[in-house]
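Collaboration report, partner site 2.

Our partner group contributed sequences for two proteins of shared interest, and the home lab folded both. The records are reproduced in the order in which they were received, starting with the first partner submission.
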Amino acid sequence: MTRDCICLILAAGQGTRMKSGLAKVLHPLCGKPLVEHVARSAQTAGVARTVVIVGHQAEQVKESLKGLEVEFVLQSPQKGTGHAVMQALPIIEKFAGELLVLYGDVPLIKPATIVSLLKKHREERNACTMLSTIIDQPGGYGRIIRDQDGSVSKIVEAKDATPAELSVKEINPAIYSFENQKLVEALSQLKPNNKQGEYYLTDVIGIFRAKGMKIAAQIVADSREVLGINTPEELAECEEYISKGR
């Protein structure tokens, strides 16, 4: 099912909200670093190749995944999620399959969910298929705005959303399957036109949409599966969730 898929795991950030000197993806969950849970889920799903984008405490992250069949790409400095994917261009620029993008702080992502995402992506021949989830208090998450036919028209960041858009409870956890060659082309069009001066992977959605490409979102019922760990409290809650059998 996933034979023609490369998985990129973005794991370069520091994670300052963890209030720790340890890179966020290295924090242990049930005895394993967060990023290892993600890598194992991707490999259990059967992806052909796993590439981890490292940056902050890169050598420690590499050491934490010793023994797994993964490759590493350095992102230094870190200039956004789009910039992270750009660092992997030497690996992906000629690849003709799907590119799966995961994050190293989403340890509950299930192999079955990954397989289902890729299946939908292939069957519908989308340029991009993303996971979404519905939460009662979306807060600062980007909202997924759909057309009448159910396809994704745009992702709007909370700070840029209208009151009507802010009322939308379907949010973007930023887990994607891309048609890789379309993504490679779009990466060359990304601009750091924001206060942070960063390249955002979410801007690819707008580029696809402007070209009339099809974008779809698959809703994950349990939001905990796709939301990242950002604070010590969330890590503790995740540990308790797992200990109770998920």
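Second partner submission, folded after the first:
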Amino acid sequence: MARLNLICLLLAISVRTFVNGQANFNTTGNYRASSYASVSSARGLFLDETGDLLVASANSRITSVYEVNGTVATSLLLQNTDLRLNHGIAYSAGFLYASSTVTAYRWAFTPGQRTEITAPAEIVIKNMPSGGHSTRTLIFDNAGLLYVSVGSNANVDQDSSRARIRRFNISSIPNGGIEFSTGEVFADGLRNEVGLAFDGEGVLWGVQNGADNLNRDDLGGDIHNTNPADEMTKYDQPLGTFYGYPYCWTTDQLANHVHGEQFAWPSFMNDGVHTDEWCKNVSNNRPPTLPLPAHYAALGITFYDGSVCNSSAGALPCSMTGDAFVAFHGSWNREPAAGYRVVRIPINPQTRLPTGEILDVMFEPDPAGCGRCFRPVNLVFNKQGHLLVSADASSEIFRITYAQ
């Protein structure tokens, strides 16, 4: 149903095309977008309490993006190639946090600071598993607990011991940092949960990339183009709940089967445990809250709080309050190429669950033929109710507004 809604929307909406900087893009309906700032290899985003946008780049840089009298400016906060920072960024209680593949660091930081950080990094979390999926997403809850997401080592690992979200109490950090392996397992069985965000009720959600190269003879052979689904999950289950990887996968489009059905990954079907029936049992495997289109590569998620929806020019409308917005980085393991877009996923205000719709906001018009495609990574709302989006392929930050 979600895929059908997406297709129907594309047929029904008016489309406006823009060319800014290096990436071409379309927006839909009343959305307007423009290239807001240029930041090399922009990936992770965090909006500090003063309204400055902090950007983590894949080239071990952190940049502040801000406005002075209506003019957008940037300042380099940190550049240290020895640390190999690549994606994760967060702030809590006077410290700025960032991560490499193996280590999470922090520095004393004052929101609104625009001068370069020269103090040495303090190690917060050490000995995270190296190799494989390299991003280490960082996020804090309201109690000051730090969540760290680590993806799989291979396309399909032998177990889930690596592919998890761990949670850390960092109120006391020993000299040299906290051993990663001692972190509490918050959620288990998550292949590559890059995007994490808390909703307005303080519940953590995430978006996950499904595995590649799926082939099951009994289900049609090579079904990798439209399976398995990427996943969007609300973490409202008991601590340490198992969400399927590597033993189970979720359907996106599969002949004679419903969207979101659970099956066993081929390499585990004959191990005596992980059958299709095992995967369909929610006591063993918790399915996603919403299956997402296969191989769209969901990397970012945020929620609209609607706090300025009636008072700020260009703010998204109040009717979208509580909705999720997701960045799809784009596929490599399907033909034709797909993803390369920012979408809105409406959340029912009564159930606090997705309605099933996936509605385009901004997208790459020609994924197969673009030079440097629009490849969104992360997204966050600023204090004006505008959506800011990082795009690493074109080294841009985009701003999306809404024309009432």
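Feedback sent to the partner group on the second submission included the following. Helices lie at 2-12, 276-280. The chain has one domain: 2-346+355-402.
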